[in-house]
Each structure stands twice: as structure tokens, then as C-alpha cells.
Amino acid sequence: MMHGKLYLIPTPIAQGPVDLVLPNGTLYVIRKLSYFIAEEARTARRFLKLAAIDKKIDDLTFYIFNEHSATINLSHYLTPALEGHDIGLLSEAGLPCVADPGSEIVRQAHLTGIPVVPLTGPSSLMLALMASGFNGQNFAFLGYLPADKQSRIRRIKELETTIHEKKQTQLFIEAPYRNLPLFEALTSTCHDNTLLCIAVNITGENSAIITKSIREWKKHSPNIHKIPTLFLLYADFR
């Protein structure tokens, strides 16, 4: 028996019509699947309803895998694929396996010979990088910076050094309720001529991607409290 495929399914980053951010080909695959691996069943069900899946939601099978799940003996998540059925791995927002625990499932799929098929969809990292005006050929996504104040300051100084040594764009995120303390740490630590791009609620109704120098950001604090935000640092090498 041939194995089914593991499809990596992006989901919208912000609220809004699904067909505005997901291409028809991705929606076509989603609508034919009956088995899904998701971080949370509730949000997965809501997304599939918005995607106008043809099947009844109650007839679908969900396997829950998130940051709290054990990462040993993962084969049972892929049982449908081993039995010849295609299965979808859903992200909570954006692309699966990028700042997302799904990479463990993908690794298991490779170990068991299950084909892995990534589908097209929104990536906040790539969208922000595209719109920042920063180096798109050499960049690093760092996840979260240290929460401890002094450790965070040291890390920010290291990032500025890396930017100048490697001409490398630095991307990072924060829990939305801690966005403003991070912004304040950046503006108080970075040199005035360092460039900071703030990408807010990407693909959402009030989306904004703005690049300014630290000197300019000091004059006007952005409205980013409790709003999904991506931060990018670079330098003006012109």
C-alpha cells in the first residue's frame, strides 16, 4: 500500500476572508482532507469552517500536537498516512513548522517514508522582510529575545554588532502584551542611526509595516500593545 502524503497547511495570520490570503490550490487540498494534525482542535475547526471544507466537521479526525506534547513515539500521529490517507498539518497562524512545533511531525514523516508537501500561504516573516527595505538575502529569525532586562540589552547590542559585521537583517517577535517593553528596550539601547522595522497585524484590517531609524522612533511610539508584531533590525549601509 502506498503511503498518503503529509500536507503542510498555512493558515491566515489575521482575521479576515480566507480566500484573500490562501490560494485556490491550497484551499482545494484542504477541502479534500479528512485527517488533520493541529495545535488546538477548536481553532482548527473554526479555520476549516472558514475554508468551506466540503465535509461535516464532526466527520473529521483531529490529532492534537503542540508545545506541550511529548516528542517521542510520534508515529501514531501519522497512522492515517501509513494506511494510505492524506493528512494535513495545520499551523495556528501562518506557516507550519516555522516558530511552530510541527517540525517534529515532519521529521517523523521523513523517517517513515511519508511524502511531505508544503502548501503556499502567508508567512509574517517573509511578508515583513519583503516590505522592510532590509537585506532579503542574508537574514536571521531569532524567535524571542531574553525576557530578563540585562540579558535583553546584551542581546540587542550583539544584534547590532552582527548587523554591521555580516550585513544581516535580524528578525524577532515578542508576546503581544510585552511589545512595548521590547520597543522601549530597542530605542534605549540601539544607536540612533540603526533602522527598526515594525510590522503590525500583517494581512489584517489595520496592518502596518513601517521602517524608521531609532532616532525617528523615539519621537513617536507605535500602537502595538497586545497586537501581533514582528520586529526587524538593520543598518543604513548606503
Give a quick precis of the structure.
The chain has helices spanning 24-32, 41-50, 79-82, 103-111, 124-132, 149-166, 179-189, 214-217, and strands spanning 6-9, 35-38, 61-64, 87-90, 116-118, 139-144, 169-173, 194-200, 208-213, 229-235.
Keywords:
21% strand; five-stranded parallel beta sheet; Methyltransferase, Cobalt-precorrin-4 Transmethylase, Domain 2; Cobalt-precorrin-4 Transmethylase, domain 1; 2 domains; elongated; 10 strands
Describe this entry's structure for a reader.
The chain has 238 residues and is an alpha/beta fold. The protein folds into two domains: 113 residues, 3-Layer(aba) Sandwich (Cobalt-precorrin-4 Transmethylase, domain 1); 112 residues, Tetrapyrrole methylase, C-terminal domain (Methyltransferase, Cobalt-precorrin-4 Transmethylase, Domain 2). Helix content is 31%, strand content 21%. The protein is built from eight helices and ten strands. The strands form two sheets. It has a five-stranded parallel sheet with strand order 3-2-4-1-5, with helices on both faces. The protein has a five-stranded mixed sheet with strand order 6-7-10-8-9. The protein is elongated and about 60 Å long. The N and C termini lie far apart (59 Å). The model has no long low-confidence stretch (mean pLDDT 94).
